[in-house]
């Protein structure tokens, strides 16, 4: 077991913040899938229930994109990314995921599309930022 000294700081405080907030949101989405499964009496899959399908895809889509985005946030933070830029990326990611989930549940395509687009832009922006941090100074 590795013991940390009291003086050691968290190496990725921005990633820790947005990772924690988005992890809680992901569990809320998962709980909603379970709630909808119970309501519709569907044990596996989504059956023909539109509410369960929406809940399932809102959670699935969040899980699919959140992992990659948080890895990229951590990579840029460990590569020396600035705190302000990292908070902009993390905040945008969080808002994007909320918008997408709301759009899925309320069947509001523009909100869902805005959330998806902001998520994609955040992931690409983080990738470009990571490359700039890695190769920009050489």
Write the layout of secondary structure elements.
Elements: H1 13-40, H2 50-78, H3 83-106, H4 109-135
Helix pairs in contact: 1-2, 1-3, 2-3, 2-4, 3-4
CATH superfamily: Membrane associated eicosanoid/glutathione metabolism-like domain
Second-tier CATH architecture = Up-down Bundle
- Percent of residues in helical segments? over 70%
In the predicted model, the low-confidence regions spanning at least 5 consecutive residues are: none
Looking at the structure, the CATH topology is Four Helix Bundle (Hemerythrin (Met), subunit A)
* Distance linking N and C termini: 38 Å
Query: How many beta-strand elements?
Result: 0
* The first-level CATH class name: Mainly Alpha
Give the number of helices: 4
Radius of gyration: 18 Å
Description:
With 138 residues, the chain is mainly α. Helices cover 78% and strands 0% of the residues. The protein is built from four helices and no strands. The longest helix has 29 residues. The radius of gyration is 18 Å and the shape is elongated. It has one domain: Up-down Bundle (Four Helix Bundle (Hemerythrin (Met), subunit A)), CATH 1.20.120.550.
């Amino acid at each position: 077991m590795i013991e940390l000294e009291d003086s050691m700081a968290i190496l990725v405080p921005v990633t820790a913040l947005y990772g924690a907030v988005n992890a809680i949101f992901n569990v809320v989405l998962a709980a909603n899938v379970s709630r909808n499964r119970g309501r519709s009496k569907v044990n596996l899959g989504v059956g023909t229930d539109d509410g369960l399908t929406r809940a399932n895809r809102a959670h699935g889509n969040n899980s699919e994109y959140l992992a990659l985005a948080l890895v990229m946030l951590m990579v840029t933070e460990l590569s020396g990314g600035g705190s302000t830029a990292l908070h902009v990326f993390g905040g945008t990611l969080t808002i994007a995921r909320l918008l997408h989930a709301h759009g899925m549940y309320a069947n509001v395509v523009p909100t869902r599309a805005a959330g998806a687009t902001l998520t994609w832009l955040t992931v690409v922006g983080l990738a470009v930022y990571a490359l700039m941090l890695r190769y920009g100074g050489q």
